[in-house]
Structures are given as structure tokens and as C-alpha cells.
Specification:
The complex is a heterodimer of chains A (about 700) and B (about 290).
Chain A: H1 16-20, E1 36-42, E2 48-54, H2 56-59, E3 64-68, E4 93-94, E5 100-106, H3 109-118, E6 120-125, E7 144-145, E8 149-150, E9 153-155, H4 158-164, E10 167-175, E11 187-193, E12 196-201, H5 206-216, E13 224-227, H6 243-255, E14 259-262, H7 265-271, E15 278-286, E16 292-304, E17 325-335, H8 348-366, H9 370-376, H10 394-405, E18 418-419, E19 422-434, E20 441-446, E21 452-455, H11 465-477, E22 484-487, H12 504-526, E23 534-539, H13 541-545, E24 553-565, E25 571-581, H14 588-607, E26 613-614, E27 619-620, E28 638-643, H15 667-679, H16 690-697
Parallel strand pairs in A: 1-14, 12-13, 16-17, 21-22, 25-28
Antiparallel strand pairs in A: 1-5, 2-4, 2-6, 3-5, 7-8, 9-17, 10-15, 11-12, 11-14, 15-16, 18-19, 19-24, 20-21, 20-23, 24-25, 26-27
Helix pairs in contact in A: 8-9, 8-15, 11-12, 14-15
Chain B: E1 2-5, H1 9-18, E2 23-25, H2 31-36, E3 44-47, E4 57-60, E5 63-67, H3 72-79, H4 84-91, H5 96-101, H6 104-110, H7 118-123, E6 127-132, E7 135-140, E8 145-147, E9 150-151, E10 158-165, E11 171-176, E12 187-194, E13 199-205, E14 212-213, H8 215-227, H9 230-233, H10 239-251, H11 263-288
Parallel strand pairs in B: 1-3, 2-3
Antiparallel strand pairs in B: 4-5, 5-10, 6-7, 6-10, 8-9, 11-12, 12-13, 13-14
Classes of the chains: A alpha+beta (about 700), B alpha+beta (about 290).
The structure holds flavin-adenine dinucleotide.
């Protein structure tokens, strides 16, 4: 492992000044000579056919350059792995309300939007089916769940074990649709130069967008360049190519001008993915001494008619606790709804709500402390696969958190602490998230003036990735951070992992470390840097293939205190405490922010966020930030975040596990468990709204 | 779209008379949302930000006369002690940015049942000064609203100021929202005690087509206070009286189910807020004795 000076420090974001002064340009702000604007027209029915689009009136309006529809839009090519959501304007089918059915292109944004609103689209509607239910007749078992995990797993005999278990918890939990909503709406500006395409796009990974566009437009390798220097948040909604980028490229090809397409906040609710609603059936069986004998997790979720996205909701139950009889199952139903996708900790976020709530119920049923229950059921190897863990410090996190939070003095009885109109309670839950790495390439260059440039198609979606990578490169090069420039967000730098799956830093740091080490080696050999500089390239594909088979995960423990208003059912969160074991933390400041951000999003998941499906019209009614509520400053009080000093040298050269997602895993359960402790009522359906609390108290 | 700009009250009235279709814009915190969402597409806007007198407040004959464009932040900072109910409500509006821009005139003209300034103005017996080239008139806030987002304002009229009696007793405002800021009320309640007159006034926000007065609750409470001679004794208020007051207030709510809350929840919450605001104001009244 590298000697560290920069790593671990709370370095400020390198691009902070550029961002706060407006100098940093986002995709929707890049000016290209002579560009025009595309505005998306969305379907107003949930299922059926577009029978006619009368564009004449719109084409006659001032400034309107073109109206792209399935009749005239450029034909796209598809490969086996093509994301069907990207095959926009290729046929007349409407598969969900809010699907793109046309693009109006005009000289100004206002002209384009006005045209889009006026465009006359006639439909042949068909009955739609948008209501998700665990007894839906069309539920089926997908071939695998996201991204490539087995759908069902089974060890031992769960039914037999449950039948003879001393204590059984059998409960159903649900989570609603949730919408990612990064601050920066999706935007792209595309320009063609013959058969070369350049796209400035707001995404979490420029090379994956490059690859998708290359395929869709049938181009040669290297013909597409995607740039995304600054990205204003993603939470998974920008994890792969989204339709706006394809539409911009289509519009640019059609009009032979650069075209910018920016989605509105409201369009984002249908066009860029969201978290599927889930229904989860949990069955836990334990001996009288609170040892788990069986654990079963069955998860239901929805997908669209466009493509299958099967959330890996029950995955978490495959590794958390040592149940000798362990079964997980996933079922999914394709409805006439927008396609759900990744949203911060897909799988683990909703899955942990069910598992960690059920564990709390089991602790109560067994009469043991919830931390003690987890300690007693700590596995020595991954229960489902039998693989050893590269490192697993869940218990250390629970104990450290208990210390910081003051858990020892907790009275386990529910509904007995009252301060005026407030009932007070505390809860705990475990967190986990996979710690994986994916192949990436990087280049490190030494310049004659003693400075260094590192190039990698990483993506900084506001996480501080650019800064963290600079710290890593500086330590590898044994140079101060000021002498190292890390360039990111340009697909011409070569293939690299996206900022997703909490794998960004783990994957990029590997390639950077390798390139830097190679460079130092070369410099050692040649002695002095030649005037033109010297570059070393690295590709980690082989290294990653050669990795030992291990269960690699980050772990954590979350504690929550809630106050529940007995008269109105309002739930307030005076404090949260999270302790994580996530390998090396590269930047103490941005790392802490990631974890605080995840936990804050967990407050939203527990108490506020809920996409409300309108069964009649088939879309999410509260599709704006005035009615889709995320926590604001006033909802967040004390969030205490810390981590355990964890060294795991079986991960990657820098020892990174990734912290983008684990912060939201377990938060909602910790809060729900605290609401139970406060009130004596178990909330199994999120969000824990005032009216639900009040009904339970009545 | 034409953009008209007025530098004085008279200029504003003249412009509005000539172009009754021109939509006034003050802080813009309601109007710009409507324009952005294309709920309204006016042919003309009339910018009132150049009218200096709209941004002034003054004390006149036991009243505070608040210019139509005084923002919430200034109500809180400058006249909070004179109009406490309004100040408490102003503190709950939006975020600092919204409170810096949003105005009393805008809140009144929007006439939303969720307008947080409206219940406290109602219970304080405020009146609205409106005018046009045809002349000026004053309208009690109690008579100002005619329906959801509708008021007595004529097409050529503008709001000039709001006349709020300086508080003659404790006032309170409480609201329930799904989160702690930046939230449209699920429901709200304002209460004012008028010890000199020995009356009380309550008003419900966000649980009906307009803000709603609560006469049954008021009559009940006034009778209880009189029968028990509580105005004079300043004795503790029976819990049962506060509860009954809340129930009667809740019965005046005419709520609907929407994404912010169910009708049942709102009715219940109004009762809770009414009971609580009574307890707070009564405690304050009792303390004021010393
Ligand atoms: C994010 C956000 C949060 C908000 N939170 C709250 C909240 O918590 N509580 C709340 O009550 N409101 C809230 N609002 C709504 C808004 O801020 C208030 O209603 C505010 O009082 C409007 O004042 P304004 O000056 O900005 O009005 P504008 O938007 O300028 O005008 C509103 C309406 O009043 C008319 N108008 C303005 N001045 C006059 C006048 N002098 N004469 C005649 N007509 C006039 C306009 O034509 C328009 O129809 C919020 C708004 C936003 C955007």
C-alpha cells in the first residue's frame, strides 16, 4: 500500500471556486456555434398508439426548425444489449405516459417549448394497467436481477425450519416509488461533423454514453466523443445513457446544427428512471436464544413494458445474517409505467428497510437487544455463497455506534418516554453495500516542469471524485496535490467505470495507481523527464479478472432518535448516528458529506418521499419538487457520521470500498424502529406519514 | 408579452385602468411559478416593484398600515411585536429567499386557502385598502375572499396596503406541514384573543376552499370565558374547554383529500392546532397579568 500524505485529508473540492463563481459549465450551458433547442413532447396516454401527429401548425410558427416524430426521425440501430428506452421515436407505440413522442426543434428554448406544447398528437388509447400489487396475475420470475444476480436462492429447508422454530416473525413491508431528482436536470448538446459526433452530456459515465451512441447511430469506434466535466448530481438517474442525449444527437443530425435538449424537472419524473415500489414478505425463525434458524425474503417490484428492470431487493438478505436455512426470491410485473432504474443503493435501500425492520421485530419477539441479536447472528462466511469476507466489521460499527449514541442506557420498552406532546424513541439498523471494482483505463503524464497530469474518464457528479482522485494520484506520485492535475469527464480518455454502484473511486483509483506506479518506474529508468513529457497507460481489466473470489462489502450501523407528536402524528428526527467500515476514506470532508447525504436521503425515504401513481391517467401525480418532498434543512438536525479505521488489502491497491450508497442503507429501518420504540406501533409501509402515525395511535 | 412598469400608485392605477388584463407582479413568488408551469399566459405584466410607497409601513391610529409590497422578512424583523400573529405566520413561509421576496399584497391577491398570512390577518380584523382610477375602498379581510383563488378585487383594482390593528392581546398561528420548511400547509390555524372586547377569533387555513372563520368555536369559548369569569380571574383554562374549542373549530373545516393529506387527517389536525393555539395564547394572557 502507498504511503499517504494527501489521502485521508479533508481537502476542499478542487473545482469549488469555479462552481461557486459560475465558471464551471454544465452540459446545458455549453455554447456551441449556431445551436438550436429541442423540446420533448411526451405522450398523454399510458398505453396505445400514436395515430397522427399534425406538425404543420407548429412548423409554421416563428423559429421552429423541425418536428421529429417516429415518421421522420433518424433510424437507430440496436444491438443485443441496447437499452430499449433509447430507441426513441422509432415506432408509434406508447408504452407509458410521459414517453417521448416527438421533439420540437427551434431557434430559442421558448419557441421550442411553445411548439412542443401546441403539437397536435392523436392517439388510439388502450386500457392501461399501472397499479402495482403483490398478487398481480402477471408477476413472473425474471431470469436474473439487476445487474446480474440470481433471481432466487435457497439454502437448506426454510419451510421446515420455520415450522419448528421457537419464534417466528412473518410480516410484509412496502416502499413506494421514489424519484432521484438530482439538482441538475438531464441535459445534452450534440454536434455532428460528418460521421463524427460530439455530445456534452450530463451523466455518470461518459464512456458508457459513448458506447451507446456509437451503437445507436451505427458509427465506427472512436467516432463519438462524450464530455461531462461537471455534473450536478445523479443518484443513479444519470447512470446510463438517457433519451435526452439520443434526442439531441437525432435532432442535430436532422437539422445539421448543434442541438441542445434539456429536460424539465417534471419530465424527469417519467423519462430518466426512478426507484420501483416494492412489496416485501419476510419470514424469520429463531431459537429461543435468538439464533436465526431460517430467513426468507420475497420481493416484488415493477418494471415497464419497454424493458425489464428487476430490482435486486432481497440481495441484502443473502449476506447479512447467519441463517442456516435461507431463501430469497424476486418477482416482477411489467406495467404500463415508466421504466424504474437505479436510485441510490438500488436493492439494498428498500431491501434493508424490510430486513432490518424484521430483525427489530424479531429482537422484540425474542426479548433481546437488537444489537445483541445481530451479534448472535453474525456469520463467519457469506451465508448464501459460503465465500469468505474480505473484511467485515459490522459488529465493530454497531458497538462503536452504540457508544457514540448512548445506546447502553436505552429502556427497551416501547411507548413509555414522553416529553410534553412528544413520544420519544430510538432505533438501530445495519447497513451494507457491495465493494466492487470494474475495469478502467487511465493515463499518467510527467511534464518537464515537474508537474503531472492524470487523465481518466471518471465522473464527478458532485461527490468530490475529482478531488479524491487528485489525492490518490498525488500520493502515488509522491507529489503535492498542487502539482497534480486530474482531468476527467471526457470519453477520449478511454474506457472507465461509471460513477455508480459505489464503484467509481474503487475502480478509478486502481487504474490511476497502476498508471502512476508505471510512470514512476519509467521515470526511475530514464532519469529526467524529456521536454515533451512522458506518459504511462494502465488498464485494470486483467487485474480485476485475476481477483480472488471473495465476498467484498462495506458495512455500517445506523442509530436514530425520533420524536413523535401524539396529536398530529408528525415525526421529527433530532439525531442520527452512522458508523461505517468502508475501507480507506480518501477525503475526510467529501467522504463525510457523502455519508451525511445518504442518511439525509434516508430520512426522506422514511418520512417523506412517495411517488403517487394516478391509476386513471397512469402517471406520478406529484411530479415536481413542490409536491414530491425531500428533506430540507429544517428536517435535519444532528447527523453524527464517523468511520472505523479499516484496512482491507484484498479490495484494490488503494483499499477503497466506496461510500456513495451505504449511507442510505438502513436509515429508514433505523427510523421506523425508532418510531416503534417511541409509539409501540410498527410501521411497515413507507413513508411514515403523519396520517399513518395518527391512525396507528388512535 | 408587454411589460409595464409603474413608479407610483397613480401610475400603477392608470396602467391597470388602461390594461385591466395586465397582471401585477410584486415579489413574483406566486406569479413566476404560474408562468413557468404555463398555468397563466398573460398578455401583459405590470411590475409594481418601482412603487416606493408599497414597501413602507407606518403606525396610524392604533393600526399598522403595511404597504402591499412589504416582504415577510421585514414584517418579522420590523413589526413583529405589533402584529405577532402575522409575524409568526410569516416565519413559516417558504425559505429565507421566499420570505425576502414574497409580499403581503401577493399573498392576499393570490387568495389561496393555503396563504399563511391570511388566517392571522382575519383574526386580527385587518382591512385591505384597494383602489382604482375610479376611487378607493377598504374591504375587511373577512369579506375579501369569494372562493378558491378568488377575491373581490375588480379587474382594474390594485391592493395598496393592509391595515392591521395593533394586537390588543395574545395571538398565535400554527401549521402542519409534511416537512419543516418549504412546504404548503396541510392545514393551519390562527387565533387572537381580544381581552378588551372579551372576544376571541379563530381562522382555519388550508382546509377548505378559502380560509375559514370558526364562529361556533368562538361563541362557545366566549361564553365559557364569560361564565367562568376567566377574563378577570385569569385562572387556568380547563383542558376540556380547550379540547371542546378544538373540536368545534375542527368542525368548521371543509377539507379534501389530496397528496398533502387526507380530509380526515386535516379535520383532526385543525382541532389539535386550535386547542394548542388556545392553550398558548391563554398561558400568555395569564402571564401578562404579572
Ligand atoms: C418555494 C415557494 C414556497 C412558498 N411557501 C409559501 C408558504 O409557506 N406560505 C405561503 O403562504 N405562501 C408560500 N408561497 C407563495 C408565495 O410566496 C406567497 O403567496 C407570497 O405572499 C406571494 O407574494 P409575491 O409578492 O411574491 O406575489 P406575486 O407572485 O408577485 O403575485 C401574486 C399574485 O398577486 C397579484 N398581486 C401582487 N401584488 C398585487 C397588488 N399590489 N395588487 C393586486 N394584485 C397583486 C399578482 O398579480 C399575482 O396574481 C411560496 C412560494 C414559493 C415559490
Amino acid at each position: 500500500m502507498t504511503a499517504t500524505t494527501a489521502i485521508g485529508a479533508g481537502l476542499n473540492r478542487i473545482e469549488a471556486a469555479a462552481k461557486v463563481t459560475g465558471a464551471a459549465r454544465y452540459a446545458g450551458e455549453i455554447p456551441l456555434d449556431g445551436h438550436a433547442y429541442g423540446s420533448v413532447v411526451q405522450s398523454t396516454i399510458a398505453r396505445g398508439q400514436v395515430t397522427m401527429i399534425d406538425a404543420d401548425a407548429v412548423l409554421a410558427r416563428p423559429g421552429v426548425l423541425a418536428v421529429l416524430t417516429h415518421d421522420n426521425a433518424p433510424r437507430l440501430h440496436r444491438a443485443d444489449d441496447t437499452d430499449a428506452e433509447l430507441l426513441v421515436l422509432q415506432d408509434d407505440r406508447v408504452r407509458y405516459r410521459g414517453q417521448a413522442v416527438a421533439l420540437v426543434i427551434a431557434e430559442t428554448l421558448e419557441q421550442a417549448r411553445a411548439g412542443a406544447e401546441l403539437l397536435d398528437v392523436t392517439y388510439q388509447p388502450e386500457d392501461h394497467d399501472v397499479v402495482f400489487a403483490a398478487d398481480h396475475p402477471r408477476l413472473y420470475a425474471p431470469e436474473h436481477v439487476n445487474p446480474n444476480y440470481p433471481t432466487d436462492t435457497s439454502v437448506g429447508d426454510v419451510d421446515a425450519a420455520l415450522a419448528s422454530a421457537a419464534i417466528v416473525v412473518d410480516a410484509t413491508y412496502s416502499t413506494p416509488a421514489e424519484h432521484n431528482n438530482p439538482m441538475e436536470p438531464h441535459a445534452a448538446i450534440a454536434q455532428w461533423d460528418g460521421d463524427r459526433l460530439t455530445v456534452y452530456d450530463s451523466n455518470q459515465g461518459a464512456t458508457s454514453v459513448r458506447q451507446a451512441l456509437t451503437t445507436l447511430f451505427g458509427l465506427a469506434d472512436g467516432a463519438v466523443r462524450v464530455l461531462s466535466e461537471h455534473v450536478g448530481g445523479g443518484f443513479g438517474a444519470k447512470g446510463s445513457t438517457r433519451p435526452h442525449a439520443v434526442l439531441a444527437a437525432m435532432g442535430a443530425r436532422f437539422t445539421e446544427r448543434p442541438i441542445r435538449v434539456t429536460l424539465t424537472r417534471q419530465q424527469m419524473f417519467a423519462m430518466v428512471g426512478y426507484r420501483t415500489p416494492t412489496i416485501q414478505h419476510m419470514r424469520l425463525g429463531a431459537d429461543a436464544d435468538a439464533t436465526l434458524v431460517a430467513l426468507e425474503h420475497t420481493a416484488y417490484s415493477q418494471t415497464s413494458q419497454v424493458l425489464e428492470f428487476a430490482e435486486q431487493t432481497a440481495l441484502i438478505s443473502r449476506l447479512m445474517y447467519a441463517a442456516p436455512n435461507l431463501r430469497t426470491r424476486h418477482r416482477v410485473v411489467a406495467l404500463d409505467v415508466p421504466t424504474p432504474r437505479w436510485m441510490r443503493a438500488p436493492g439494498e435501500a428498500p431491501g434493508s428497510f424490510a430486513l432490518e425492520s424484521a430483525m427489530d421485530e424479531l429482537a422484540t419477539a425474542c426479548g433481546v437487544d437488537p444489537i445483541e441479536l445481530r451479534v448472535r447472528n453474525e456469520p463467519s462466511v457469506e451465508p448464501d455463497s459460503g465465500l469468505p469476507f474480505s473484511s467485515r466489521n459490522l459488529i465493530a460499527c454497531l458497538h462503536e455506534g452504540a457508544e457514540r449514541f448512548g445506546w447502553a442506557s436505552r429502556d427497551p420498552r416501547p411507548g413509555v418516554r414522553r416529553d410534553g406532546r412528544w413520544l420519544i424513541g430510538t432505533g438501530v439498523a445495519s447497513s451494507t453495500y457491495p465493494a466492487r471494482s470494474a475495469p478502467s483505463t487511465a493515463a499518467a503524464t510527467a511534464l518537464a516542469d515537474g508537474s503531472f497530469v492524470v487523465e481518466i474518464t471518471a465522473s464527478d457528479i458532485g461527490t468530490g471524485a475529482r478531488t479524491a482522485l487528485t489525492q490518490i494520484a498525488a500520493d502515488e506520485l509522491r507529489a503535492p496535490t498542487e502539482r497534480v492535475e486530474v482531468r476527467i469527464g471526457d470519453s477520449d480518455f478511454g474506457q472507465a467505470m461509471i460513477a455508480g454502484g459505489s464503484m467509481g473511486t474503487a475502480s478509478w483509483s486502481w487504474a490511476i495507481a497502476k498508471a502512476c506506479r508505471e510512470l514512476l518506474h519509467t521515470l526511475h529508468e530514464i532519469g529526467t523527464v524529456p521536454p515533451e513529457g512522458v506518459t504511462a497507460h494502465a488498464d485494470t481489466a486483467e487485474d480485476i479478472k485475476a481477483q480472488a473470489q471473495l465476498s467484498r462489502h462495506a458495512f455500517g450501523a445506523q442509530f436514530a432518535e425520533v420524536r413523535v407528536d401524539v396529536d398530529t402524528g408528525e415525526v421529527r428526527v433530532p439525531r442520527l448516528c452512522g458508523v461505517f467500515a468502508a475501507g480507506r476514506i480518501i477525503n475526510a470532508k467529501t467522504g463525510r458529506s457523502q455519508l451525511i447525504g445518504g442518511m439525509t436521503m434516508g430520512i426522506g425515504m422514511a418520512l417523506l418521499e412517495e411517488g403517487v401513481m394516478d391509476p386513471q391517467f397512469g402517471d406520478y401525480v406529484n411530479h415536481d419538487l413542490a409536491s414530491y418532498h425531500v428533506p430540507v434543512n429544517g428536517d435535519v438536525h444532528d447527523i453524527d457520521v464517523s468511520w472505523i479505521d479499516e484496512h482491507d488489502d484484498r479490495l484494490n491497491p488503494v483499499g477503497v470500498k466506496g461510500i456513495g450508497e451505504i449511507g442510505i442503507v438502513g436509515t429508514a429501518a433505523a427510523l421506523a424502529n425508532a418510531v416503534w420504540h417511541a409509539t409501540g406501533h410498527r410501521h411497515r409501509h413507507l413513508p411514515i406519514r403523519p396520517d399513518r402515525v395518527l391512525t396507528s395511535l388512535a | 408579452m408587454d411589460f409595464l412598469y409603474a413608479r407610483s400608485w397613480d401610475e400603477a392605477l392608470a396602467a391597470k385602468a388602461e390594461r385591466p388584463d395586465a397582471v401585477p407582479i410584486s415579489g413574483g413568488t406566486d406569479l413566476m411559478v404560474d408562468l413557468n408551469f404555463d398555468r397563466r399566459r398573460p398578455d401583459a405584466l405590470l411590475d409594481l416593484n418601482g412603487v416606493e410607497e408599497f414597501t413602507r409601513w407606518e403606525r396610524v391610529n392604533g393600526h399598522v398600515r403595511i404597504g402591499a409590497a412589504v416582504p415577510f422578512t421585514r414584517i418579522i424583523n420590523e413589526i413583529g411585536s405589533l402584529v405577532p400573529g402575522l409575524a409568526i405566520a410569516s416565519r413559516t413561509v417558504g425559505s429565507p429567499q421566499i420570505r425576502n421576496r414574497g409580499t403581503l399584497g401577493g399573498n392576499l391577491a393570490t387568495a389561496s386557502p393555503a396563504g399563511d398570512a391570511l388566517p392571522p390577518l382575519m383574526v386580527a380584523d385587518a382591512t385591505v385598502e384597494v383602489g382604482s382610477v375610479r376611487g378607493e375602498r377598504t374591504v375587511p379581510v373577512r369579506e375579501f375572499f369569494t372562493g378558491p383563488k378568488r377575491s373581490v378585487l375588480e379587474p382594474d383594482e390594485l391592493i395598496r396596503a393592509v391595515l392591521v390593528p395593533v394586537a390588543d392581546g395574545p395571538q398565535q398561528f400554527a401549521k402542519v406541514g409534511t416537512r419543516n420548511a418549504m412546504v404548503i400547509s396541510v392545514c393551519s390555524f390562527a387565533l387572537a384573543l381580544h381581552p378588551a372586547r372579551r372576544t376571541v377569533a379563530g381562522c382555519i387555513g388550508s382546509a377548505g376552499p378559502t380560509v375559514l372563520p370558526t364562529p361556533d368555536a368562538e361563541q362557545y369559548l366566549e361564553a365559557e370565558l364569560a361564565d367562568r369569569r376567566l377574563w378577570d380571574s385569569r385562572a387556568e383554562l380547563d383542558e376540556a374547554v380547550a379540547t371542546r374549542f378544538g373540536e368545534l373549530a375542527g368542525a368548521h373545516a371543509r377539507p379534501i383529500d389530496d397528496v398533502r393529506g387526507t380530509a380526515d387527517y386535516r379535520r383532526h389536525a385543525v382541532a389539535v392546532l386550535a386547542r394548542r393555539t388556545l392553550q398558548w395564547t391563554w398561558t400568555e394572557y395569564r402571564r401578562a397579568q404579572r
